[in-house]
Every structure is written in structure tokens, then in C-alpha cells.
Amino acid sequence: MSNNTGNEHINIEVVLAMPEQQELVTVVLEAGSTLADAITRSGILDRFDGFEPDPKQVGIFGQRVAIDQVLADGDRVEIYRPLIADPKEVRRQRALRQAAGNSGKGRSRPGSV
């Protein structure tokens, strides 16, 4: 979108989702604006008391990028929250539980002879 002064503007969505609350804010910025500009302009962090984002935990459409990444019209800026559990550790624990459950001898599966 352009105006008469020659300044080009871009439309950006900024998203932050917590387990209990999700917010999506649309902002209009000048072309050349960064992720940091979008987050600041959106005011989205003011809606989440006590949440301090990690500048390395941001992205555009699910791809992590630097906080100083220049945005394009239509980008969706995502602020990622810290993981409660490490996914690799969760998978490892699940595999251990399954292995322990399958180790019983003499068990038969339903329908087996």
C-alpha cells in the first residue's frame, strides 16, 4: 500500500500464544521495519504480564529468524514461548515406559493364540 508521500507501508500480524491466552494483533508499519519494530508497535507484550520474550525465540510463519529481520507485507511475526519440557527428553521417557511395559514375559496380546 502506498500513500501520496511515497512512503510504502506493510501489513503485519504479530502473534503470541500462551496456554491460557492467545493474541493476534495486526499492525501497519513502514517498509523496511523489522521484527522488533512490529513487536514493539503491536503492544502485544503488554497483554501478557510477566512474560519476557527471548529475542532468539521469534520467527515468521514458523521459521526462526533474527529479531532484526526486515519484514515483508503480509508476514506473520510469531513470538515463541519457552518449552515446558524438552521434546527429546519426553520422547526418551515415553520410549523407556513403553519398553518397560512390553518386557513382561508370558503376556499374550488380545486375539493371539
What is the fold's blueprint, element by element?
Layout: E1 9-17, E2 22-30, H1 35-42, E3 58-60, E4 63-64, E5 76-79, H2 87-101
Parallel strand pairs: 1-5
Antiparallel strand pairs: 1-2, 3-4, 3-5
Task: Write structural notes for this entry.
With 113 residues, the protein is of the alpha+beta class. The protein has a single domain, classed as Roll (Ubiquitin-like (UB roll)). Helix content is 20%, strand content 24%. The chain has a five-stranded mixed sheet with strand order 2-1-5-3-4, covered by helices on one side. A hairpin with a 4-residue loop joins strand 1 and strand 2. The chain is elongated. The N terminus is likely disordered.
Keywords, separated by commas or semicolons:
alpha+beta; 5 strands; 113 residues; five-stranded mixed β-sheet
Entry summary:
The protein is α+β, with helices and mostly antiparallel strands and 113 residues long.
Number of beta-strand segments: 5
Q: Please name the CATH topology.
A: Ubiquitin-like (UB roll)
- The domain tally reads 1
**Tally the helices: what do you get?**
2
| Average pLDDT for all residues | 85
Largest sheet geometry: 5 strands, mixed
Helical fraction equals 10-25%
Overall, the morphology is elongated
What structural class is derived from the secondary structure elements?
alpha+beta
CATH architecture: Roll
CATH class assignment: Alpha Beta
